[in-house]
């Protein structure tokens, strides 16, 4: 019974496909999986918009949406109808073809990323040998669509936003990749199902997730920073900083094309959170051995929504960075730490079991972190934090 | 040769032709990206997953962006009035035709020399990694040094410009 519940979606798919003749069954089962992904994640997006507006409202001491439906829960439906019925305005000087293609390219590239995410036991659309590589290849193609949107609008705010976005995404993509490479080194595979399997065993009831190791924790923190920057979320939301650039690269988009950009941004958030959960938080595995009876997909989506909650929390609490701070942070602080983390991961592998590797690896990372932080503070002649007006 | 191959080949060639023939430089860059994507899909069609995804990541994710940045950050990104074609297009055509003829000759020769029914090799990413670290470690290191030199060179060029302004 528990097993059936765990595999409910897989069984459902087999049941649906079994009505068809045997010749068309393989493509039909793929079609069913794709349909499920294309339906579930936009639905999750609709829920998240309410969740985000409500959460931000709580943080800012407001009430938030409460007009449409109970607790404003039907707000996304109203928003959807609104964006479908609004006029689609294309600026006269815009490059019509590129302007039209940009949001489509973005959403397609983002949706492709979900193909390799294992969302539960045996619940992966394409179990590729090179899943991680596929995911990052798809992530890299979203940058060009952002540029296409900004350039084709013929608006200086759009172009500035696009340039900022591309520069930021390229810089943080390096960090995203380098922090994931440590996991590949440990798991010995680029296949995401194998990475989850490598973390899915327990000792003393506790899981062997990669976040519970020194290099894994450091890697996860850097992955989270890079993921926030890669999805253009606050505090790294310079590409669409509304007080500086109106709305950045999608200033000149209206109606459903704007909704597509909005959708793409949230889908990217889901997929990058899912990837983080897969790499560092054990994917669909349960946090305690005694909780293994809960279906695997519940764990995956819980971890995903928890990451979304952290994204919203960060957006509500942190101010936006400046462009030079953003670049300095990426190239002068996080990137060296990433490279060091690669060495530490190698050390962890070859020191063997025992307490020595815990002490050595933690010490190296902590000393490097403190030394780089203090060195930078000293270089900028910044003492302890002082408050001019808040005393 | 399957239908998929012909579709991908047509896509790649169309992208490459558009990259040469279009008037607007940014359009050319975007068309070039289509050609890159077509090449990546051709690799994937041949079951070379690593090469295909590396092609997407490096060429679409980085090189295309670099091209686009270079176009936008240089002054003469507007289309020149007298068209984008060089005056010496006839010579260019001759050189291109010669290269094409030589390549086709080499490829056609190889078809007759090699046995026809070669089993498709199954290469996993693990094997590629082992080959890179084991047998081809020296070429890999040389490429790494070359890239580092290029990186340092780029930084020095950029720094020199900054000093000139001050």
In short:
The complex is a heterodimer of chains A (391) and B (166). Chain A is mainly α. Chain A has 2 domains: 74 residues; 237 residues, no CATH class.
Descriptive report:
The complex is a heterodimer of chains A (391) and B (166). Chain A is mostly helical. Chain A is 67% helix and 1% strand. Chain A has 14 helices and 2 strands, in the order ααααααααββαααααα. Chain A has a two-stranded antiparallel ribbon. The radius of gyration of chain A is 22 Å and the shape is globular. Chain B has 6 helices and no strands. By secondary structure, chain B is mainly alpha-helical. In chain B, α1 (3-21) packs antiparallel against α2 (25-45) and α2 packs antiparallel against α3. Chain B folds into 2 domains: 1-79, NADH-ubiquinone/plastoquinone oxidoreductase chain 6, subunit NuoJ (Four Helix Bundle (Hemerythrin (Met), subunit A), Up-down Bundle); 121-166, no CATH class. Chain A binds chain B through residues 95, 98, 128-130, 133-134, 136-141, 143-144, 147-148, 151, 159, 163, 166, 170, 173, 189-190, and chain B through 24, 26-27, 30, 33, 49-50, 53-54, 56-57, 60-62, 64-65, 68-69, 72, 124-126.
Brief descriptors of the model:
heterodimer; A: 391 residues; mainly alpha; 2 domains; two-stranded antiparallel ribbon; 14 helices; 67% helix; B: 166 residues; Four Helix Bundle (Hemerythrin (Met), subunit A); 6 helices; 77% helix; globular
Form type of chain A: globular
- Protein structure class of chain B: mainly alpha
Q: What is the number of helices of chain B? A: 6
Strand order of the largest sheet of chain A: 1-2
The biggest beta sheet of chain B reads: none
| Main sheet: strands, sense, barrel of chain A | 2 strands, antiparallel
* Rounded average pLDDT of chain B: 82
Q: How many structurally independent domains of chain A?
A: 2
Distance between the termini of chain A: 61 Å
**CATH class (first level) name of the largest domain in chain B:** Mainly Alpha
Distance between the termini of chain B: 61 Å
Order of helices and strands of chain B: HHHHHH
């Amino acid at each position: 019974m528990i097993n059936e519940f765990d595999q409910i979606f897989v069984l459902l798919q087999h049941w649906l496909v079994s009505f068809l003749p045997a010749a068309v069954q393989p493509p039909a089962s793929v079609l069913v999986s794709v349909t499920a992904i294309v339906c579930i994640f936009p639905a999750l997006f609709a829920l998240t918009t309410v969740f985000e507006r409500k959460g931000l409202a709580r943080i800012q001491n407001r009430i938030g949406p409460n007009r449409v439906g109970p607790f404003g829960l039907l707000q996304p439906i109203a928003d959807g109808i609104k964006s479908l019925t609004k006029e689609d305005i294309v600026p006269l000087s815009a490059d019509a073809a590129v302007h039209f293609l940009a949001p489509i390219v973005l959403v397609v590239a983002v949706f492709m990323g979900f193909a390799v995410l294992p969302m539960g036991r045996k619940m992966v659309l394409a179990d590729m040998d090179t899943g991680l590589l596929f995911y990052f290849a798809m992530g890299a193609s979203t940058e060009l669509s952002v540029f296409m949107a900004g350039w084709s609008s013929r608006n200086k705010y759009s172009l500035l936003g696009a340039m900022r976005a591309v520069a930021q995404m390229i810089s943080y993509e390096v960090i995203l990749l380098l922090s994931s490479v440590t996991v590949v080194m440990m798991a010995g595979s680029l296949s995401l199902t194998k990475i989850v399997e490598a973390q899915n065993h327990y000792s003393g009831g506790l899981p062997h997730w990669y976040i519970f190791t020194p290099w894994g924790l450091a890697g996860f923190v850097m992955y989270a920073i890079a993921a926030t920057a890669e999805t253009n979320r606050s505090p790294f939301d310079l590409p669409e900083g509304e007080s500086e650039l109106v709305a950045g690269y999608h200033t000149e988009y209206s109606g459903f094309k704007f909704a597509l950009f909005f959708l793409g941004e949230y889908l990217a958030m889901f997929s990058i959170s899912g990837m983080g959960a897969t790499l560092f938080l054990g994917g669909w595995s349960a946090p305690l051995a005694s909780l293994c009876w809960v279906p695997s997909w519940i764990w995956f989506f819980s971890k995903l929504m928890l990451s979304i909650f952290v994204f919203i929390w960060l957006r509500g609490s942190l101010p936006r960075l400046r462009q030079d701070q953003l670049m300095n942070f990426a190239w002068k602080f996080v990137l060296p730490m990433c490279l060091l983390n690669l060495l530490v991961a190698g050390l962890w592998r070859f020191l063997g079991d025992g307490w020595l590797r815990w002490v050595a690896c933690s010490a190296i990372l902590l000393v490097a972190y403190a030394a780089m932080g203090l060195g930078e503070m000293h270089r900028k002649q910044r003492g302890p934090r002082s408050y001019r007006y808040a005393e | 040769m399957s239908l998929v191959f012909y579709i991908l080949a047509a896509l790649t060639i169309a992208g490459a032709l558009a990259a040469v023939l279009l008037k607007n430089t940014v359009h050319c860059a975007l068309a070039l990206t289509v050609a890159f994507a077509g090449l990546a899909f051709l690799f994937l069609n041949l079951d070379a997953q690593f090469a295909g995804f590396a092609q997407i990541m490096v060429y679409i994710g980085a090189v295309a962006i670099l091209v686009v940045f270079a176009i936008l950050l240089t002054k003469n990104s507007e289309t020149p009035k007298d068209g984008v074609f060089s005056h010496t297009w006839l010579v260019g055509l001759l050189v291109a035709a010669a290269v094409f003829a030589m390549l086709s000759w080499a490829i056609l020769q190889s078809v007759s020399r090699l046995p026809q029914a070669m089993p498709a090799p199954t290469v996993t990413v693990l094997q590629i990694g082992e080959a890179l670290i084991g047998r081809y470690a020296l070429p890999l290191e040389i490429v790494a040094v070359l890239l580092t030199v290029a990186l340092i060179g780029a930084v020095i060029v950029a720094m020199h410009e900054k000093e000139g302004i001050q």
